[in-house]
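Hey,
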Amino acid sequence: MPSQFTFGCVLEHARSWALICFCFETQIHALIMKSKYTIDIMVSNSLISMYGSCFWNQVNLLIKSFDGTPIKNSITWNSIISVHSQRGNAVTAFNFLGCRRRDQVLVSNQMNTLFGSLITVTYTSSSDGVPSGPCSIEQILARVSKSGFLSDLYVGSAMVSALARFCLFDIAKKVFLELSDRNAVSVNGLMLGLIKQKSGEAAVEIFKDAGDLVLKNFDSHVILLSALTEFEDLDEARRKGSEVHCLVVRSGLIDCKIAVSNGLVNMYSKCGAIDKAVRVFKCMNDKDQVSWNSVISGLDQNCHFEEALLFFSDMRRTGNMPSNFSIISSISSCASLEFLKTGLQIHCVASKFGFDSDISVLNSLITMYGECEALPECWKIFRSMPDYDQITWNSMVGVLSSSEVPLEVSIGLFLEMMQRGWRPNRVTFVNVLTASTPHSVVELGKQVHGLAVKCGMFRDIAVDNAFLSLYAKSNDMISCERFFSEMSLKDEVSWNSMVAGYVHNGLLSKAMDFVWLMMHNGQNMDCFTFTTVLSACSSVAALERGMEIHAFGIRSHLESDVVVDSALVDMYSKCGRIDYAWQVFSLMPLKNEFSWNAMISGYAKHGHGSRALEIFNMMQNSNLMPDHVTFVGVLSACSHSGFVEQGLYYFESMSSRYRLVPRIEHYSCVVDLLGRAGRVDKMEEFVSRMPMSPNILIWRTILGACCRSKQGIHTNLFKKASEILLELEPDNPVNYVLISNVYASKGIWEGVARARIAMKGAPMKKEAGCSWVTLKDGVHVFLAGDRQHPEKEKIYEKLHFLNHKMKEAGYVPQLEFAFYDLEAESKEELLSYHSEKLAVAFVLTRSSALPIRIMKNLRVCGDCHLAFCYISMIVGQKIILRDSNRFHHFSDGRCSCGDFW
């Protein structure tokens, strides 16, 4: 028969099997029950330890073994308390401590282990049955002090760490200083507590004060590197991090323990020095799972998504096992890049290594598939998950909010979440409000906001900002302004939401006033504010307003920001000052693809095709690869300048040289290029060979080409384009006007009449053509034949004077652009009073030597284009006209477009 010593050894050995073979443990227990050692204290203590180590959490058997021990010694009590502490069962651990005190089993050489476990459980558990936080740790401190174990190195170090975690820094430091024997362990405890509370700077000071205690300690240096990641000033953190890097290299610690190198990789990654993190990683002789996790996660967090995926591939290729951390980071990179195929591959890897049941991995997969617009895959994962957490619900609601599913689906999932007992948090509410915003469901938003207040989100700034956005995009700026004024807390997002709201509702003047208010309240503009207002200025060609914002940007020290500079280039080019755009561009210290694209597109819209192509060559010489947007600008430049062969060459080079697959917008540019050049047959052949169906824009371009063609109406092509346009957009007046204009340009007045009758019978309203100019006294808008302006007599007098001078210079009215079946004299009078001619006549009634800038909402007609050439020569002033397609610069009788417009 085995003795109690044999049973003790076997039970001790069984602890190592506890993860895989629970049945073996119960068999041993049964054998003990049959023996005479069932009440032996040593055997009972071994049983308690064994069940405490059991993976299957056999609490009942654990308690039975404890209760079945008739005589309990200090080891028995320490074992049961330690087991419950390690499992986070704080209530039970504290209850057993109370029972132990009543049993008066208080002195033991294992009391330090017991107190260490109890100290740990104060910050690893939030059980309601235990006094929480500082109250609990101070009670333990009193008991430890009374027992005399506070000077024990193990207990004292644990106490220091716990006190620091609860922000009781003064007490923590006092305990630390009273330790009879301080070493690296106690220093590390204090540093860890400070790091937990995001006090990285204080932790570094502790390290400095410790001196020789931590000089050769691996863990202290790893903790020090972790402390640097909690610095508020990342520049200072990088500087000190480099100093620590030199220290560990000089002391040889970097070569002795892999954790030091891992700490460096993590520190550089979180401080934004990802290039240094990668260098450290590549210099490591040995790499473990933590090494790969740190570098992949760092690359993902620093927006080096493609490189993160390459490192994940390298990790697999070198035989290293992926972890859930590396898989989550790689999935996050796929989401940012919208790489659906790569995401599917990583999903397969996760399943292969058993991570398809890891809730964090599944949550990241939901987000990734959502970003890649693979909504069915999101639902498939969500509905197959055995369990959900808060992030799961938020991820799924967020995916639905950003997709085009009906609002009822998002709200339905939100209600299901609450029905299942989950309490929505701030992220949930922001997602639901975001889902309501595109649908402008203000009433629903108010209900959601009321629920948020009931759930304790009162004055939550993220929820309030989402509500601001909902009001603004629902065109209810009055409620938006009232809600903003009632907000007790405002951040940058709050102010930016208001600016974006004014811009969204076409209230540029109010947006500018609000920017002034921001500056007056000490709220500096950030890149978002700046680019939002500049975009609005660009859309209405408000140059003066744009220049004001430029001045604001200089005052806010944003003039060297690449995003801001790119927005300035775009604004100046769209407001007619391509020269200012070039000045900003040439002074930029750093240029990205957006900067180059804005400059290329600017020159293209202004008719400077050769200059646009020069900028394109400069971009390539700067080792920056062109993208799809770049080629839209390049092809537009060729189209607006008549560079047919060059345009076709650049289109072919997209796939052959730059490995870019042309998109529908590039095909549209080529159709426009051929149509403007009058090569209608070539255009028709090109359209027939397109790998995708032509869109509405291409069919309209074809109609425009038929209108300009000198070779007849191209009946078959015209008929096909007309039928398709009217089928796709039967209620769009633009299509009827285009068809009517084609008939009129060829003198087919019966066709014009049919098109106009069809347009009158459709439920639509044709957009009226108008032109406007911005002067010191405001914006002046003109319609064709307009006689509402207060200075109409002066305007028409100036217009008659200009007509007389133009005819003397050789001007002949282009009557084919009067799309009505009238007598020649009536057509000429009709052409004379187009809105852009009224606008230029009005500006010329004012004395100014500055270039004349006129904006028009529709495409300028051929007669006005010719007239502006003559007017620029007669008055000796430059005229800049922006129509719906491009800019025209008229000077000395010529236009920058070279008649390719």
